[in-house]
Design a protein that fits this description.
single chain; mainly alpha; three-stranded mixed β-sheet; 8 helices
């Protein structure tokens, strides 16, 4: 159900972005603004990234199989990285066009059409951003959250352009400078998305709160210290695998030791929805 909600939201995102691309491109051509035209293509890139997110959501929903025993959850992480790379490409194109605009020293006369279209883009993109981020957090979808920040970067660029429209009458270079500012915003968003998702793909250490929770759960499994240690966590979208070690007295039988480890694994699954594998070390 959660995955279906994300897919429906992504379809809506694609359709809205295509609509915004059309009206922004029209406004940019009418006003001869490189900033608005580039922003239109940036919006279209949102549709491309949304398609990547859609593929990621559908692939991640596939159950585990023989070739992928841990499921397909990391498809969403890959989709998020694609989103980040698209942002970097658009940002570079934006920067290049803006520098050319400054070199040509050409002025831009913004009209009513540019103002109305930019305001519409600003409002719609911020609504889309908030919706995608909320749905992404609710469904634990990193690609949906990344797509939401992609929408927000577009909303910010529209805000910057709107400010520029009102002061553009006084400065010939405003359109080129706006392009550079927005490209920098895009690069920062790219950095944030790639940093988080590449780190997630490489694997991260256990969070302190989760470690403390696992250690406390040990008190419910045995009336003596289990010394949980050597935690390793691997995330596959909504599915998380964790391995760690405990220490038991050497005189324990294999059956008794296995029973304690199994009960610990079952309790962790029940309380945290994490699939744990417990390795047993000798206390001595």
């Amino acid at each position: 159900m959660e995955n279906k909600t994300g897919i429906l939201a992504t379809y809506g995102s694609i359709l809205l972005n295509i609509f915004l691309f059309a009206i922004k491109l029209w406004a940019g051509i009418v006003s001869s603004s490189v900033a608005i035209i580039a922003d239109a293509w940036h919006t279209l890139s949102d549709s491309i990234s949304s398609v990547a997110v859609l593929i990621g959501l559908k692939v991640s929903a596939k159950p585990a199989d023989k070739e992928h025993p841990y499921g397909h959850g990391r498809a969403e992480v890959i989709a998020s990285i694609i989103v980040g790379m698209l942002l970097a490409i658009i940002g570079f194109s934006f920067l290049k066009e803006s520098i050319l605009k400054l070199q040509s020293r050409s002025e831009v006369e913004y009209g009513t059409v540019a103002i109305v279209v930019t305001v519409i883009s600003l409002v719609v993109k911020e609504i889309m951003a908030q919706y995608s981020i909320i749905i992404g957090k609710r469904t634990h979808s990193k690609s949906m959250v990344a797509d939401g920040w992609h929408h927000r970067s577009d909303a910010i660029s529209s805000l910057v352009i709107l400010v520029g429209i009102f002061i553009g009458h006084y400065y010939w270079w405003i359109d080129g400078v706006l392009g550079i500012i927005v490209s920098l915003l895009l690069f920062y968003t790219t950095y944030s998305i790639l940093k988080e998702n590449i780190s997630h793909l490489l694997g991260e250490g256990i969070e302190d709160d989760l470690r403390k929770e696992i250690v406390l759960l040990a008190n419910e499994v045995a009336d003596f210290e289990l010394y949980p240690h050597h935690f390793l966590v691997h995330q596959y979208g909504n599915h998380t695998e964790m391995t760690f070690h405990i220490r038991l007295p050497a005189e324990f039988t294999i059956h008794h030791a296995h029973e304690i480890a199994t009960n610990y694994e079952i309790l962790i699954k029940k309380r945290t929805n994490i699939q744990a594998t417990v390795h047993i070390d000798s206390l001595e």
